[in-house]
Design brief:
Strand 15, helix 12 and strand 16 form a beta-alpha-beta unit. 35% of the residues lie in helices and 19% in strands. The chain is α/β, with parallel strands linked by helices. The chain has 2 domains: 250 residues, Rossmann fold (3-Layer(aba) Sandwich); 185 residues, Glycogen Phosphorylase B (Rossmann fold, 3-Layer(aba) Sandwich). Helix 1 packs across helix 16 and helix 8 crosses helix 11. The strands form 3 sheets. A 9-stranded mixed beta sheet has the order 3-4-5-2-1-6-7-10-11, sandwiched between helices. The structure holds adenosine-5'-diphosphate. The site of adenosine-5'-diphosphate (ADP) has 17 residues, from helix 1, strand 12, strand 13, helix 11 and helix 12.
């Protein structure tokens, strides 16, 4: 008989309770799909405050003075089901990482070292079959864990490492020496050294992070662990991202009725103040950060009319870039529209109504938006990085292509890809063919969850052998 595996899955973000980036969606998507597959997943996150649980029980954890008091609240959450919250001094905040003015909390290192210490204490108490950590916020658990279960660390974004000063090395636990990093303490470097398996969120990212360009200083340690490192592509929540049922869309559609996208397109043209004509419509939904490469699109905006193409961009983040985009929208109102902010509903409409979706990322661990776009029959134009390579075969190079790939993250290469995409998508039959193909791909968490379950099983069998 197959006995269910118990996995303690620790994360700083979990949709929809605390969602900052892709980590939140991945933790929820994977955790919930693993449960559907019969894995007993204990989802563990910080108690940021204001999170209601039903049938709640509390347990005090045994942690050193600097990390406590640490208390576990365990119960049922209306959206995610069984949930474990760790409360420790400083964890409860209005935002997981940021102050209201957008800068990081001064004590972020301390807060997440406490979280890590509490995860180790919980693992010692509960004795799960596998401990699965995610990103730097949880990495320091492995400094404290003695004689624990097999461990997995997933890397969702290596750019963030939570490096703190060296004094933490005296506190975080008996394996602290692995966390020493150029005189400081790096919660991720130690976790990468000590974990039994390291999972990058796409196969391409798993190889990129072993190079000086993609390694953010950790390419050396990651190359040393090459045998333990693998890539598993993220999925998306195909219930939330379902064009057949999405309540945010003026018109719902399926692959067979993709023509109904025209209604969504018209509504989007109106929203952006564009004319109702056949010129192709591209959208971008993004954080405005260096990673996302939006600055590479800036010099192309005055050229849109000549491609010809129109672009609607929804984004929040970098204030300088936002100001630049506002100016361009004023200057080129017939071809470029910019909506500043984070707008869930508009984002769905932008996936549902556009012809093309642009992702000019400099690096992209996995990327969710290109999969969301494809699910909604919107053709991605992307750079050749990370998960974008794994999810978007170029339609000019592959018979079963799903989008258009710029070879390098430069305005010139992006322009060339936009020309190619526009040429190909201007013919309705060719557009419909590619739309149907990408809408029929399974982007759900089912396959990724199976891969993780196999990985856990492998580790368990290895631990017993
Ligand atoms: P990230 O690096 O930001 O995690 P991903 O593509 O992995 O990038 O995931 C980002 C998620 O956040 C997607 O689901 C996307 O739709 C959503 N998103 C990003 N920016 C915005 C925005 N300004 N408004 C609404 N949703 C957004």
């Amino acid at each position: 008989m197959l006995v269910s595996m118990r996995v303690l899955f620790a994360t700083a973000e979990l949709s929809p309770i605390a969602a900052v980036g892709g980590l939140a969606a991945a933790a929820a998507g994977l955790g919930i799909e693993l449960r559907r597959a019969g894995v007993d997943v204990d989802l563990v996150m910080p108690d940021y405050g204001g999170i209601s649980l039903v049938d709640e029980v509390s347990i005090e954890l045994d942690v050193p003075d600097w990390a406590g008091p640490a208390v576990v609240r365990r119960g049922h959450h209306v959206d995610v089901g069984a949930l474990t919250l760790i409360s420790a001094p400083g964890l409860a905040r209005s935002h997981p990482y940021l102050q209201p003015d957008g800068s990081g909390w001064d004590d972020n290192s301390e807060r997440f070292f406490r979280f890590g210490r509490a995860i180790a204490a919980l693992a010692e108490l509960e004795r799960p079959d596998v401990l699965h950590l995610n990103d730097w916020h949880t990495g320091s658990a492995l400094a404290a864990l003695v004689d624990g279960p097999p461990t997995v660390v997933s890397i969702h974004n290596l750019a963030y490492q939570g490096i703190a000063d060296g004094s933490w090395l005296d506190l975080i636990g008996p394996h602290a020496d692995h966390f020493e990093w150029w005189g400081g303490t790096n919660p991720l470097s130690g976790a990468l050294a000590l974990a039994d398996r390291i999972v990058a969120v796409s196969p391409r990212y798993a190889s990129e992070i072993r190079t000086p360009q993609g390694g953010f200083g950790l390419d050396g340690p990651l190359s040393e662990r090459a045998d333990a490192l693998l890539g598993i592509l993220n999925g998306i929540d195909t219930d939330v991202w379902n064009p057949a049922t999405d309540a945010h869309l003026p018109a719902n559609f399926r692959p067979a009725s993709v023509a109904a996208k025209a209604t969504n397109r018209l509504a989007l043209l109106e929203r952006f103040g564009f004319d109702d004509d056949p010129t192709l419509l591209a959208t971008v939904v993004t954080r405005l950060t260096e990673q996302k490469g939006i600055d590479l699109l800036v010099p192309l905006i005055p050229l849109l009319e000549q491609i010809p193409l129109r672009l609607g961009l929804l984004g929040s983040g970098d204030a300088v870039l936002a100001a630049q985009l506002r100016r361009l929208a004023d200057q080129y109102p017939h071809h470029f529209a910019f909506v500043e902010g984070y707008d869930e509903s508009l984002s769905h409409q932008m996936f549902g109504g556009a012809d093309m979706f642009l992702m000019p990322s400099r690096f992209e661990p996995c990327g969710l938006t290109q999969m969301q776009a494809m699910r909604y029959g919107t053709v991605p134009v992307v750079t050749a990085v990370g998960g974008l390579v794994d999810t978007v075969p170029d339609a000019d190079e592959h018979d079963d292509g799903l989008g258009f790939v710029a070879k390098e993250a430069t305005p010139e290469h992006l322009l060339a890809a936009l020309f190619r995409a526009t040429r190909r998508l201007s013919t309705k039959t060719r557009r419909t063919e590619i739309q149907k193909r990408m809408m029929n791909v399974d982007w759900s968490w089912v396959r990724p969850a199976q891969r993780y379950a196999e990985l856990y099983r492998e580790l368990l069998d290895g631990a017993k052998a």
